[in-house]
Amino acid sequence: MKPELCILFYYAFNIASVAIPFAFIAFTIQRFCLLLYHTKHFFKTKRWIVLCIAGHWLAEFIISLPFVFRTTRKCTNVFWMTVYTLVTAVLLPSLVNFILNSMIFGHVRSSTRRVQPQNPSAWASRITTQQENRQQAPKISRREISLLRQMIFMFAVYTLVTAVVVPSLVNFILNSMIFGHVRSSTRRVQPQNPSAWASRITTQQENRQQAPKISRREISLLRQMIFMFAMFIGGWSPVFIVDIFLQLVNVNTMITAVTILFGEYVSNRALVYDENIRPNITRRNMAKPRWATVRRLSSVKEILT
């Protein structure tokens, strides 16, 4: 193969390797900005989506440039190239996703207590019980559990498919941030009926003492995240792991060693079996099968070695 074609081949290979992990990162960034900066209209427009897609492809072409400046004359995959692809396709995306998901989860978690009564007369009771509410830690609601499951699923899929540490961490971080945001925004729903505020204010102190459960929305989000992560990890990681393993270990030597050990194991088992049945047979009948077994095992060991 010509050097130009070899460079183009490995450059395209690295782009294809980081395409899915960086797509996960772009998706997580888009969701992160949409949740944390929901008041800004720009993150709700199609222009922001197009910008995320364009940045995704631009990052792929830029991060694969080291393969263009390779100095090896032979068209072979160098060890540092495999490690670089592993870092850019697995480790880096995993780290970024992990950080962003953690921030999202923290934001959702913190926004759970943001629901405030619109009636001014309710502020007095709220201020008096504010210190007690801070001492009580809220339980995880179903909504938060759903979000957490979805994040874990996405991270598992991402890690198993690509086996890239970076994309896996990135997806995990972003999904954690999203889950935190959903967790914090669980209690933002306010009743629109003014007559409902009286009963709500009277039972507000009792409701604060009770920990909120995880909602179905959070459980669904958590399942989706876990699923995406599992798909990401299971798809690409075996490719890089096997490649690195073959470069570091001599497979022929391992096969020979395993074959010899297997032959020794079979020989020992046959001799032990022969010793166990020895008391049940006569000496005349025992001599022929035993020495025949030993001769057969010796010939097998000579062939294997």
UniProtKB/TrEMBL annotation:
This is G-protein coupled receptors family 1 profile domain-containing protein. It is a multi-pass membrane protein. Gene3D superfamilies: Rhodopsin 7-helix transmembrane proteins. Its main location: membrane. The chain crosses the membrane at residues 12-36, 48-69, 81-104, 152-174, 225-246. It is found in: Cell membrane. Residues 193-212 are annotated as: Disordered. Residues 1-273 form the G-protein coupled receptors family 1 profile domain. Keywords: Cell membrane, G-protein coupled receptor, Membrane, Receptor, Transducer, Transmembrane, Transmembrane helix. It comes from Adineta ricciae (Rotifer). It comes from the Eukaryota.
